[in-house]
Amino acid sequence: MENGFTKTILVTGGAGFIGSHVVRRFATRYPQYRIVCLDALTYAGNLENLRDIEALPNYAFSHTDLLDMQALQQVFATYGITDVIHLAAESHVDRSILSPLDFVYTNVIGTVNLLEAAKKAWQGSTDGRRFYHISTDEVYGALGDTGFFTETTPYDPHSPYSASKASSDHFVRAYGDTYGLPVVISNCSNNYGPYQFPEKLIPLFINNVVNGKPLPVYGDGLYTRDWLYVLDHASAIDVVFHKAPLHSTYNIGGFNEWRNIDLITLLCRLMDEKLGRAEGESKKLITYVKDRPGHDRRYAIDATKIKQDFGWTPAVTFEQGLAATIDWYLANQEWMNHITAGTYRQYYETQYANR
Ligand code: NAD
Ligand code: TYD
Question: Which pick of 21, 91, 106, 324 has the fewest CB atoms within 10 Å?
Fold first, then answer.
């Protein structure tokens, strides 16, 4: 026990979309844990995502890059890290097509650095410790019209993003098998909700509808994704962190498949209602554009194992989650404006100047 805390959990990528929800959940639900949020604050990291919890006595922030091995080792030593929840990554498929090496550096080398730092720090004993790696269903490749990804589906990544995540999963398992590192992995489907960077489909389209900009639908729009509300992903991460046996893998999803064009049509209808626009107004913004190269046709998670083992299921339906998400973006247009204007990057300097 360090400083009265029963665990000191390093959450990497905590200033990003999913990471900020994980940090918030753990810091508020578990005052007995110290939560150390580590983030390099790339374009996707935004400390405004954590403004409401940054004064909590069990929260700390470390501005550290996973590629800086010495700094990583220092973080483990300074805080006495007992557990890791690893979310930091380059996460956008389109960016991975433009700059694949950035994905190799952070997702592959950064993950190996983190594994090394944990191995070194915990070499005396790994009792009660855990290295929990957050991954994606995209490592499994693409499905046809039927079938689901299970925990034993062979890896078949197609984009530089999914290839880098697949590689990081292999390294995590290799550290478990070779060095006995206490690892656990979960692979989740597409997330949506508050604080998602507006390069991903749902926040991008909400923002474009608000501003009357075109909605760029890739290819024929018949690609299928399995959507999970981010707070449900955070609750699943909580369950897996506390209950999953070491060296196990869990798939996380809500059995909630949507073809892109159907989702976009629903989103447009809800936006018309919420913005008081005539029905069909937002749909007029739909513009079919050139397809993404290597675009995976369909993802669908079989989340039976996490339900059977721990009774976990999502708390909200897609309609509830999407409506709550739209409401959040409409109520937080300042957050969006800071991102589109780039001023969110100044927050760190002003907030942490004297710390
Ligand atoms: P995000 O892009 O919103 O956030 C990533 C965070 O990692 C950012 O805060 C960024 O600053 C930080 N980061 C990037 N490079 C870093 C580095 N070198 N060192 C330290 N920090 C660095 O991503 P997200 O959507 O929140 O995804 C989080 C994790 O969940 C990722 O590992 C992703 O692969 C996985 N995942 C995401 C989804 C999804 O739909 N978003 C679904 C399944 C799994
Ligand atoms: P995205 O949010 O980038 O997630 P991922 O590629 O990791 O699944 O995209 C979700 C789906 O939406 C995917 O099939 C690509 C499609 N898409 C568009 O049609 N237009 C867009 O502008 C974006 C960003 C995505």
Answer: 324
CATH of the domain at 16: 3.40.50.720
With a CB cutoff of 8 Å and minimum separation 6, the contacts of 241 are: 83, 85, 130, 132, 184
The answer to whether residue 285 is domain-embedded is: no
pLDDT digits (tens, 9 = 90+) for 189-223: 999 999 999 999 999 999 999 999 999 999 999 99
CA 270 to chain centre: 25
Per-residue pLDDT at 353 exceeds 80: no
Is it the case that residue 1 has pLDDT exceeding 70? no
Q: How many residues does the chain have?
A: 355
Ligand 2 atom showing the smallest separation from residue 94 Cα? 3
Q: Whose CA is closest to atom 25 on ligand 2?
A: 201
Active site residue 229: no
259-315 residue pLDDT tens: 999 999 999 999 999 999 999 999 999 999 999 999 999 999 999 999 999 999 999
Note whether residue 327 is domain-resident. no
d(CA 303, CA 253): 6
Q: Is residue 206 part of a domain?
A: no
From the CA of 13, how far away is ligand 1's center (Å)? Answer: 6
